[in-house]
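Hi R.,

As promised on Friday, here is the backbone we talked about, encoded as structure tokens. Could you run it through your design pipeline when you get a chance and send me back a sequence?
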């Protein structure tokens, strides 16, 4: 409530000026568009009184719905030629009441965000907005089924931001349908598709070869996805995104993470190639690998792939599959392997040496290896197995190992001494140093 109050005060600040004097009132109301005058309506706003007092200015409708306040929102929505933004949180049972006035076109609507808290995902009727939203720039739906979405998107040719969160299985949209809709969105900059469960997957019985010509999304800069690999493979085989610089992908836990079409998609996207830093991270809920430029900000200009699973060996195995299926990691010079569990549950012998080596294998150009203290002994033991002619089979260009919490003696030091000696004798010396995580 406090956040809505702050927004309301900012948007309604002009109202104080019109009470100063008649001259100021004339100046303010004389240039409503230039001054961007708007009226802010929440479910608690006495809407009918507000509409009677002020001129016919654009309306912003925002807030959390509770039963006794739906009348105010419905009254505001009745002014369909004035509504420019609708941002509402509600329980599913309220949807039918609130959206009943929205089965016709809202010609001034630019921003729409609907979020449901209901256990049973509500359904937006196909007649929503009359099937047309020509001025829409932002569309966010959370935990809502909307069968008419593909048709609506075909009319929203000025859409810049499309975010579909927690898409229920009842609201499944096929890759072919979503791409057909996206193909007309030449201004789209941000796309987020997040499915609620792994049930939402393509029908393999009706699977077709990728089209010879892809749909181009010329302005797309950021892409986020949560679902199964089969869906993403179908999606990326149908689109080109020449300006894409940020991709955040999360897969549900499954057996096979081989993604040849995703690899091809990355190869065809200039900004996603050539990353010189890789971070492999494990925590209580998922494991991930993130590729980025070391000079970039942490949340910008990156490719991140996450696997939803909790078992330690499964996490390493899944990330190993992902790393070995990505395009050649021949630009990565800095590799971080980080422990982010809430509790120190990791054991040195939790992962077989061969699995660590398989994970490290594709990083053929890494010079600097950074290890959380929980992983140091296990990875050192795995690297120790590479002796003689095999010494450079894994991390052949490694020059430095940076270890968190490095001490003068201990398990890590004992296990690393043989590796250091072997590398030195083979002509590929390495240096062991302390890693200060707070400085990176």
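Update: got your reply. Pasting your designed sequence below so it's all in one thread:
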């Amino acid at each position: 409530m406090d956040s809505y109050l702050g927004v309301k005060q900012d948007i309604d600040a002009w109202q104080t000026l019109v009470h100063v004097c008649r001259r100021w009132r004339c100046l303010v109301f004389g240039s409503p568009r230039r001054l961007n005058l708007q009226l802010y309506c929440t479910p608690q706003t006495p809407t009918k009184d507000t509409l009677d007092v002020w001129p016919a200015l654009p309306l912003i409708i925002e807030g959390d719905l509770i039963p006794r306040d739906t009348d105010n929102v419905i009254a505001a929505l009745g002014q369909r030629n004035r509504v420019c933004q609708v941002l509402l949180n509600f329980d599913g049972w309220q949807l039918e009441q609130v959206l009943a006035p929205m089965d016709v076109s809202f010609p001034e609507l630019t921003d729409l965000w609907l979020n449901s808290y209901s256990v049973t995902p509500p359904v937006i009727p196909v007649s929503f907005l009359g099937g047309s939203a020509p001025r829409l720039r932002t569309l966010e739906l959370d935990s809502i089924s909307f069968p008419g979405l593909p048709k609506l998107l075909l009319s929203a040719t000025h859409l810049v931001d499309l975010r579909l969160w927690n898409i229920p299985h009842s609201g499944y949209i096929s890759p072919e349908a979503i791409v057909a809709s996206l193909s007309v969105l030449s201004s789209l900059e941000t796309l987020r598709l997040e499915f609620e469960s792994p049930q939402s997957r393509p029908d393999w019985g009706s699977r077709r070869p990728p089209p010879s010509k892809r749909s181009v999304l010329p302005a797309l800069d950021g892409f986020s996805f949560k679902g199964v690999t089969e869906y993403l493979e179908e999606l990326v085989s149908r689109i080109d995104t020449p300006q894409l610089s940020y991709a955040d992908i999360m897969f549900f836990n499954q057996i096979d993470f081989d993604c040849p079409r995703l690899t091809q998609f990355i190869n065809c996207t200039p900004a996603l190639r050539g990353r010189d830093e890789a971070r492999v991270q494990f925590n209580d809920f998922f494991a991930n690998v993130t590729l980025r430029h070391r000079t970039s900000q942490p949340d910008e200009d990156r490719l991140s792939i996450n696997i939803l699973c909790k078992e330690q060996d499964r996490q390493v195995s899944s990330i190993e599959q992902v790393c070995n299926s990505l395009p050649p990691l021949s630009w990565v010079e800095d590799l971080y392997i980080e422990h982010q569990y809430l509790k120190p549950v990791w054991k040195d012998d939790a992962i077989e040496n061969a699995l660590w080596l398989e994970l490290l294998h594709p990083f053929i150009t890494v010079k600097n290896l950074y290890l959380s203290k929980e992983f140091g002994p296990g990875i050192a033991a795995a690297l120790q197995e590479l002796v003689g002619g095999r010494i450079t089979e894994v991390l052949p260009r490694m020059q430095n190992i940076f270890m968190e919490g490095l001490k003068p003696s201990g398990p890590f030091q004992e296990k690393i001494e043989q590796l250091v000696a072997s590398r030195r004798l083979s002509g590929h010396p390495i240096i062991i140093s302390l890693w200060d995580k707070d400085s990176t």
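One thing I noticed while checking it: Residues 210 and 269 are 18 Å apart (CA to CA).

Thanks again,
M.
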